[in-house]
Amino acid sequence: MSLIVSQAPSTERPPAAPPSLTPNQRAWRRFWRNRPAVLGLFWTLCLLVLVLTWPWIAPYTFEATSDAQFSPPSAQHWFGTDVHGRDLMTRVIYGARISLLVGWIGALVAVINGVVWGASAGFLGGKWDGFAMRVVDVLYSLPSIIFVIVLITTLEGFLRKWLVATFDAGPAAVGYARLIFLFAGLGAISWLNMARIVRGQVLSLRQRAFVDASLALGAHPLRVIAKHILPNIFGIVIVYATLTIPAIILYESFLSYLGLGIQAPMASWGSLIADGASQLNPIRVYWWLIVFPAGMLVTSLLAMNFLGDGLRDAWDPKGRSD
Fold first, then answer.
1. Which are the contacts of 209, defined by CB distance < 8 A and separation ≥ 6?
2. Which residue, 127, 121, 117, is CA-closest to 190?
3. Which of 218, 171, 193 minimizes the C-alpha distance to 118?
4. What pLDDT, in 10s, does the model give residues 161-185?
5. Contacts with 215 (C-beta within 8 Å, 6 or more apart), sequence order
6. Can you list the pairs that 120-127 forms with residues at least 24 positions away whose Cβ atoms lie under 8 Å?
7. Which of 25, 194, 209, 214 lies in the 20 to 30 Å Cα band around 105?
8. CATH number for the domain running over 23-56+80-314
C-alpha cells in the first residue's frame, strides 16, 4: 500500500525583480565605477574648497612680504618664498582662483554660444543651418590663440580707457580689462565644438514623434527647444563643458606665461610659472618657484580631464547597459 505524502505549499516568495534604473541612474553607476574619474572629481572638489576657504585659514596674505627671499620649502613656508619673500603656497592658491574663474566663465560663455548656435541650426535647418555651419567652418580655419592675442592687443586699450572714464578704476583697470578680454576671447574660441555636437544631437531629436506632436499642437518652436530638446541633450552639454574648462585654463596659463594674460597685482598659475622662469640663472636654480605652480596646474588639468572623460563614458549612449 503506497502512502501519498502531501506537501504544504511553499511560503517562499519568488525573488523580486531588480528595480529598473533610469538612463541617468545607469550613467551615474558607470561613473562611480570609474576610479580615475572619481579621483578627478575628488581633487577638483578639494581644490574648490581650499580656494574658497583659504582667505580665512591662510597664515599669510597674498601681498605679505618678508626678509626671507628665495627661502626653500620649510615648515614655515611649505612651497617656499619668491623674490619678495612672499609665501608661494598662498600665491599658488590665490592664483588658482583666477585660473579657475577664467576657466569656468570661459566655459559658460562657450556653452551659451554653442548651445544657442547649434540648437538653432539643427532645429531650423535649411539655409540657416548651412550658413551657421559655414560660419563655424570659417572660425575653425582661424588660429584660435592668435585670434585671442590680436583681440587683447588691439582692443584692450579702448576698454581700459572706458573703465577709467566710467568707473574711475585707476591702476586696477589694467587687470580688469585683461580679465574681461580673457573671458570673452577664450570663450569665443571654445564654443565651436559645442555648436557642432549640439547641432548633431538636435538633428536626431528633431525627427522624433514627440517633437512633431508638440509642433502639431501649436507649441512655439522656442518652447519645443526649451521644454523637449534641451533637457534631452543636457547630459552631453555638461560633459563637454567639463572638458572645455581645462582647455581654457591651459590657454590662459599659456597667455599669462607670454605676458599677455593676467597682469600684476593679480596672479594665475601661468603668471606664477613665468615669474619662476624669470628667476632661472646659471648660479642657482630656485626650483620651487616653477615646480609647485606647474605641479598644481598639471595635476588640476589631469583631474578635470579624467572627470570629463568619465562623464563622457558614463553618458555614452553606446556604453554598457548595467
1. none
2. 117
3. 193
4. 777 777 766 666 666 777 887 888 8
5. 221, 224
6. 121/195, 121/199, 121/202, 122/198, 122/199, 122/200, 122/201, 122/202, 122/203, 122/206, 123/202, 123/206, 123/221, 123/224, 123/225, 123/229, 124/221, 125/203, 125/206
7. 25
8. 1.10.3720.10
